Amino acid sequence: MWKLIKADLEYNRTLFIFLYSIIFVSVLANSIRGNLEEYLAILMFISVGLIGILVGTEEVKTKRIRFLSELPLPVRQLGILRYPVFVTYWFSLMVLLWLSSLVSQQGHLGLDYLWWILTRTGSMFLMVAFMDFGQDLPFCVKDKGPGIVLKSIAILFGIIGGPFVYFATNAGRQSDPIFISLSKVFITASGAIGLFIFSLVLILVSIYVYELRRSYAE
Amino acid sequence: MEKAFQYKDVIKTFPDFKLGPINLELEPGTVLGLVGPNGAGKTTSIQCLAGLLRADSGEMTVFGRPNDLNRPEWKRDIGYVGDVHVFYERWSAAKNLHFLSQFYPDWSNQRASELAERFQLPLNKRAKDLSTGNRVKLSLVSALAHSPKLLLLDEPTSGIDPVVRTEVLDVLFEILETGDRAIFYTTHILPEISRLADDLAFINDGQIWFRTPKEDLDDRWRKITFRLAKADIPFTSVVSHRRKGSDHLVISSDFQATLKLLKELGAENVQDMRMSIEEIAIQILKGGKDVASA
């Protein structure tokens, strides 16, 4: 598994270096100036979106699943492989964000901040997991029609559900009643932890769905 | 000795196509050519064995081990070259080979280098900048560098020019001569198979019609010309019959039986001519399952 992760990181090294550079500068700005957490959160979301679009598109175009499926590797490992790089990347961003806020707030961060980070993480994982098993679902069923319908539903959940929770629970957006309600749900211990655990379960489901594919030839 | 591979009642269905049930096996060290027209099920068959497609039912084994996708040690014994050649496109050929070498304990860098040199493969070029012919060669080097006991080649020369095709076949022939490797080769380019295969299996509409040693086809099939006034001749093994007056041309799948009949009927100027494997295969594929089993 480590060989595959290393290959993935090396292959996309330029993109990661570019994204980390921009984020690092922004994190530094937040450490000095403070109160830039919301903008950082947006920037980090965009970076994941860019990775999804650039890396994901190339993987589909070059039939990465087929390439790796030809190797003597368990299919389960290939299903798991989609997550370590993304999860590590995301956690590193959250650590950077937390550190910069700690510096700018001079160590005064309440528990609300932790729930805010956890909600961000859960909503991001939710989005990615839905997108991933949306890609796999058409290959798990015999008929294309139902497969495409399932894919569309999963991807819609991913691109709407995940970002909605992500942005709606921005600490600053307290004016709209819906956002206020969502913040009250998710920027709490039970809401944040519940969402995070739910997103981990979805990732496990996504890995399982990958194994159910009837074809790895695309 | 374990079979190189075995298909047992393998079925794979798609909305508009059904493969199987397929029952097929290959002895180690032999070459089996799977011949059929486009859409016959050749690629589906080989992809099921290689683990790229999950069969709906049936079993497949490679050297006695089930082709279980979660216990893929059997894949170390195979070298697969598919109809599509996939790599890390922004990496050079050399880097791709280095990446692949990590997954095969029997990989030999020396062997990979020798093959690359034999193929004149530009190792420093990025995969995405390689021509179609060079992509095929890179796939072949990748498949051969770990000295697999079984090669699965799915129309490996499809889409490449005749010069490159000949180079590829020459190397494959050398490999055949130097080892006891089994090869399962699908193609619709018949001259290729006539050079390489020990046995031929004919597939169409998802069914394997029959399988025969190449020598048998060579020994049994003939074009026969003769002169006979009689128009209605009770042939049993003739798949094609053309007549112009008293001059006849038949294609027979059992020429000894046909010659015997013609002798009994008093035919004159009887001449039989050998047919190439390509000509025989065309007759079989045109004629259908009944011709195949005649």
Summarize the structure.
The complex is a heterodimer of chains A (218) and B (294). Chain A is mainly α and 218 residues long.
Order of helices and strands of chain A: HHHHHHHHHH
Question: Would you tell me the structural class of the helices and strands of chain B?
Answer: alpha/beta
Mean pLDDT of chain B: 91
Question: What oligomeric state is this?
Answer: heterodimer
Question: Can you offer a commentary on this structure?
Answer:
Chain A is built from ten helices and no strands. Chain A has helices spanning 2-11, 13-33, 37-61, 64-69, 75-81, 84-104, 111-136, 144-168, 177-186, 189-211. The mean pLDDT of chain A is 86. Chain A has 218 residues and is mainly alpha-helical. In chain A, helix 6 (84-104) runs antiparallel to helix 7 (111-136). Chain A has one domain (2-211). Chain B has 294 residues and is an alpha/beta fold. Chain B folds into two domains: 5-214, Rossmann fold (3-Layer(aba) Sandwich); 217-292, 2-Layer Sandwich (Alpha-Beta Plaits), CATH 3.30.70. Chain B has ten helices and 14 strands. Chain B has helices at 42-50, 93-101, 109-119, 132-144, 162-178, 190-196, 214-220, 255-265, 277-287, 289-292; strands spanning 5-14, 17-26, 31-35, 57-62, 65-66, 78-81, 150-154, 182-187, 199-204, 207-213, 222-227, 238-244, 247-252, 268-274. Chain B has a six-stranded mixed sheet with strand order 6-7-8-3-9-10, sandwiched between helices. Chain B has a four-stranded antiparallel sheet with strand order 2-1-4-5, covered by helices on one side. Chain B has a four-stranded antiparallel sheet with strand order 12-13-11-14. In chain B, a hairpin with a 2-residue loop joins strand 9 and strand 10. In chain B, helix 3 (109-119) runs antiparallel to helix 4 (132-144). Chain B is elongated, with a radius of gyration of 22 Å.
